[in-house]
Amino acid sequence: MSRARHESRAREGRSLIPPSVGGIAAILGGLLFVVWGYVHRDVAPWYFDATAQALSFVVPALFYTALTGLHALCRESVGRIGKFGFILVLAGSAMGVAYAVPWSAFATRDDWLASLVWLDTPLVWWLQIMLVGLPLAGISTMGVGMQRAPGGLLLAMGAFGWAYYATDSGAILEARPAHVGFGGLFSLCWIALGLVLLKRGFQ
Question: Is residue 100 classed as helix, strand or coil in its secondary structure?
Fold first, then answer.
């Protein structure tokens, strides 16, 4: 093993989440994002609502884990734009995890927890913040070798994610078939990213 590769592996080993773990999280996140979209309905049986509520926490958590694993892989080569992009994607996915908490339920409390009800408003933007960061991180990771593939996937993920958001119900370009299609492409990008991270993690 060359010295450069040895040093790269040593840096990955110091990461809390190595690329291989991030790869598994990306694959699971992509698959469960599709399930989440299927069970999240306006009028649905209670077990669909319970599943959607659980996935609203699990999916952003898996995205966060996957992006942390990717950051461990390419953090030494990204510039300022890339670092800012990773800050946004990690912050957005973390906000998604926090948004799963039913903050509006605190409004009826008589203690200090009632003041937390306002978090429902900013946390709802978690996906948009993540989608802003994805192309920034992608552009910065369009380097050489293994980093070119993740960079291209992040760019595609950002494009499909924005298209998914823009065609949602009540959005400017509302179109249900297109919304479902772009959501599927968004999920496939996560799965592909997971495979790339797994390949890199087990090298």
Answer: coil
pLDDT tens sequence for the chain (203 residues): 444 444 445 444 455 778 889 999 999 999 999 999 888 876 667 678 889 889 999 999 999 999 999 988 887 777 888 889 999 999 999 999 988 886 555 555 666 556 666 576 778 899 999 999 999 998 877 754 455 678 889 999 999 999 999 998 777 778 888 999 999 999 999 999 999 999 886 56
Chain length of the chain: 203
Write the burial class of residue 1 (CB in 10 Å: 0-12 exposed, 13-18 middle, 19+ buried): exposed
Residue type present at position 177: P
Longest dimension (CA), the chain: 62
Cα 97 to Cα 165: distance, rounded to the nearest angstrom: 18
Q: Can you read off the two tokens belonging to residue 143? A: 């380097």
d(CA 155, CA 135) in angstroms, rounded, equals 5
Other C-beta atoms lying within 10 Å of the C-beta of residue 89:
30
Q: Identify whether the C-beta of residue 126 lies closer than 8 Å to the C-beta of residue 136.
A: no
Instruction: Give me the residue spans of the domains in the chain.
Output: 3-201
Q: Whole-model pTM?
A: 0.83
